[in-house]
C-alpha cells in the first residue's frame, strides 16, 4: 500500500470518528434552550478564527480567485443544509439513530459516481455496501416500543444527500483541487455562516448558550466535528477518492456506540456489537479492495457461465 493511500484511509477514519461526536455536543445545547440554526451559526463562526490562525501559521493567502467564488459557495451551501437538516432531525428522533441513518450517504456517493461520473463498478464495493447496510440496520433497529419518526428520517436523508453531493463536488471539481485545504474550509464555513445569518434575519430567533458549559460545547463543536472532521475528509478525498472516503465514514456509528458506553455509561446490546463489527468489516474491505476484488474474481471464475445452444 502506498503511503499516500494509508494516509488517506487514516484521515477518512479520523474524520468519521470526529464527526461522530456531533450529538454529544449538540443535544446538551438543545436542552439548554438553543435552536439548531443558532447552534450551527456559532459552530461555524467559532471555527473561522481557528482556520484563520492555521492559514496564517502556514502562510496561506486569504485571497480567492473570482473563478473559485462559485465553487466554494456551492460547497458552503451544501454543507450548511446538510448540517442543518441533521441537527433538526435531533428534535424528532434519537440523535444516535439519526447520526447512524446519516451513513446511507456512502451508498449515495457510490451510486452517483457510477451513474454520472462513470466510476468503475467494483465487486468489492458492492460487497462492502451490502455488509455496511446490514450493520446499519442492526444499529438502527428500534428497541421496545420506540418508533422512528418519518419526518426525522426525511431530514436525515436530505442531510445524507447534500453531504454526498459535497463529497462528490470536492472530488470532481478541478478548481477545488487547486485550493489549499484550510483555505477551502475557511470559505466553506464562511458561506455556511451566511446561510444561517440569512435565516436569522428572515425571522428565525437567535438563541445563546445558557452557561459556560454551553460555550464549551459550542467550542468543541467548532473544533472536533467541524474543523478536524472536514479537514480530514477533504484531504482524504484528494488522496483516495470520494467513494472509499465515504464508505470509511460509516465508522461514525461505531464511534457513537463506543462513546455511549465509555462516556455516557449506556448499555450496549449484542445486536449493536454485531452492527459495529459489520461496519468494521466493511471498512476493512475498502482498505483491502484490490486484494478482495482479486479474490472475488477468482471465485467467480470457478463457476463459469454455461453457454446455451440456440
Summarize the structure.
With 310 residues, this protein is mainly α.
Structural account:
With 310 residues, the chain is mainly α. It has one domain. It is 77% helix and 0% strand. It contains 15 helices and no strands. It has helices spanning 3-19, 22-31, 36-58, 66-89, 95-101, 105-117, 123-140, 150-172, 174-177, 181-201, 212-240, 242-248, 251-262, 270-287, 289-301. Helix 1 (3-19) crosses helix 12 and helix 6 runs antiparallel to helix 12 (242-248). The longest helix is centred in the C-terminal third of the chain and has 29 residues, at 212-240. Residues 295-303 have low confidence and may be disordered.
Question: Could you name the key traits of this structure?
Answer:
globular; single chain; 15 helices
Strand-helix topology:
Layout: H1 3-19, H2 22-31, H3 36-58, H4 66-89, H5 95-101, H6 105-117, H7 123-140, H8 150-172, H9 174-177, H10 181-201, H11 212-240, H12 242-248, H13 251-262, H14 270-287, H15 289-301
Helix pairs in contact: 1-11, 1-12, 1-13, 2-11, 3-10, 3-11, 4-8, 4-10, 6-8, 6-12, 7-14, 11-12, 13-14
